[in-house]
């Protein structure tokens, strides 16, 4: 057995593919997607500071 982080890692999958946006941003334990907001709100998650400026 090794010391440190390697011995403390589990085989749990935290993020999985989101059903709405398709990105690997859906947090299984929290039950919501950090990319599109699925599971938290019916609207798509978007912020003005994240939009592309031309």
Task: Describe, in short, the structure shown.
The protein has 54 residues and is largely without helices or strands.
* Class by alpha and beta content: little secondary structure
Query: Span from first to last CA?
Result: 54 Å
Instruction: Indicate the proportion of strand residues.
Output: 5-15%
Helix content: under 10%
Largest sheet: 3 strands, antiparallel
Strand ordering within the main sheet: 1-2-3
What does this entry look like structurally?
- By secondary structure, this protein is largely without helices or strands.
- It has a domain at 12-42: N-terminal domain of TfIIb (Single Sheet).
- 7% of the residues lie in helices and 11% in strands.
- It has one helix spanning 5-8; strands at 15-16, 26-27, 32-33.
- Strands 1-2-3 form a 3-stranded antiparallel beta sheet, with no helix packed on it.
- The longest helix has 4 residues, at 5-8.
Entry keywords:
little secondary structure, N-terminal domain of TfIIb
Helices and strands, with pairings:
Blueprint: H1 5-8, E1 15-16, E2 26-27, E3 32-33
Antiparallel strand pairs: 1-2, 2-3
């Amino acid at each position: 057995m090794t010391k440190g982080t390697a011995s403390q890692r589990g085989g749990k999958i935290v993020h999985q593919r989101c059903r709405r946006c398709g990105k690997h941003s859906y947090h299984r334990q929290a039950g919501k997607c950090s990319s599109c907001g699925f599971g938290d709100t019916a609207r798509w998650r978007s912020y003005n500071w994240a939009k592309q400026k031309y």
